[in-house]
Amino acid sequence: MTDSPRQKILFIDDIPSFCEEVVSNLRSEQHDAQSMLSPLEAIPKIVRGEFDLVITTLVIAEMGGFEIIRRIRGAGCRVPIIIITAFGTDQSAIEAARLGVADYLTKPVEKNELIARVRRVLADHAPREPERPKSLARMISGDWQMGAIFEKVKTIAPSDTRVLILGETGSGKQLLAHAIHQQSRRSQEPFVEVNCAAIPANLLESELFGHEEGAFTGASKRRIGRFEAAGKGTIFLDEIGELSFELQSKLLHVLDSGKFTRVGGSNDMFSQARLVSATNRDLMKEVEAGRFRSDLYYRLNVISIELPPLRDRPGDIGILAQHFINQFAPEGQPPPTFTPSAVEAMRQYNWPGNVRELQNFAEQLAVLHQAPRIEATDLPARVLHGKPAPKAASQPAPSERLPFREARDQFEKDYLLKAIQEAGGNMAEGARLAGMDRGQFYRLAKRHGLTSNADE
């Protein structure tokens, strides 16, 4: 068994004799220590992740200790820092704490005190051996909340009970539905998915239940619907909160009786599929607002699973990012790995697009990044600086509040237009930025008059 590499310590001060003293004391205790006289030369090395601990004095002619720390933190580097000063005041101690300094020492510094503080800080910030991530079908996680969800899925999957999956867009609802199917006795039967938000309302009934020849203009031949195609397998209705009230009634009839009729037909068909549904809406609030049938809600919500957003399980960010990097790395090329400072910077970002946004981010890095390690400084500005999700447009005053449908349409149009503008007019890139399916994005954009003939 080989010894683990010694942790590297950098001491910054512009007095050579003091640098020599501190480094000598650290090396006498088998620490891998070195010093630098210039903060401007030291900061790039620190940000690149070359050191496990930084010790700096507070007063340096070239750049003060607090400014050194601000620049290090501003670059997204979370390396632990100890400050040594001969001018300790309550105000400087408060500022050190505000900047996240690991420890604060005043001169003169005794050797034993210095060594004890260094050991404690290194121990507090030493990389912990991560727990082996749990997996379920194509999902992995080291988070306890997800672990509990995985166990719940294993319990309910063998039954025929309906499941309602709740969670923000991009949080993994589709993958969880796949996992339920794969863990069930129906795993060898079809898994049929329908995105209720991606299909125009006037076509959704035909999509779900099929149609007979001549049922409507363009129906040149019989077509089976998704319920029929699912057979004895699983049908997954994503974004079920988008169903019209009329279709909600027809779905309720299917759930109550198992019967449905093709559009334009008269013969009853029988569904034997298990229903799993998902939404990013609060269906109970939709029920209270009169937009969703309460009886359908209770039929769907036999067992519910709520997926936490990625920002609520920061321990998964590094695990998933590396998983996606490994997945997308060009064939024959070893995937780059994230440094601890890069992982820490990613954990500070709120990931409004959840796992889907992280996946797109990792794919971009896997293709474009050439170095073997991904440093914090290699991350996009929005991630590195933890920029929050774009703020929604200001709300109208109550006296001028729009009706719900008009307000939703206006929001959709503004949101899509901003995404298209940020993508330079590229519809596919706009869909990626919005975390949406290309077809769904294009149909919404076309409905709001945001497409050109060139996009057809």
From TrEMBL:
GO biological process, one term: regulation of DNA-templated transcription
Domain (Response regulatory): residue spans on this chain: 8-122
PROSITE patterns, per the entry: RESPONSE_REGULATORY, SIGMA54_INTERACT_1, SIGMA54_INTERACT_3, SIGMA54_INTERACT_4
GO molecular function annotations of the record: ATP binding; sequence-specific DNA binding
Pfam families: AAA_lid_14, HTH_8, Response_reg, Sigma54_activat
Domain of life according to the entry: Bacteria
Entry keywords, A to Z: ATP-binding, DNA-binding, Nucleotide-binding, Transcription, Transcription regulation
Residues covered by the Sigma-54 factor interaction domain: 139-367
Cited InterPro entries: AAA+_ATPase, AAA_lid_NorR, CheY-like_superfamily, Homeodomain-like_sf, HTH_Fis, P-loop_NTPase, Sig_transdc_resp-reg_receiver, Sigma_54_int
PANTHER family in UniProt: PTS-DEPENDENT DIHYDROXYACETONE KINASE OPERON REGULATORY PROTEIN-RELATED, TRANSCRIPTIONAL REGULATORY PROTEIN
Protein name per Swiss-Prot or TrEMBL: Sigma-54-dependent Fis family transcriptional regulator
Organism: Blastopirellula marina
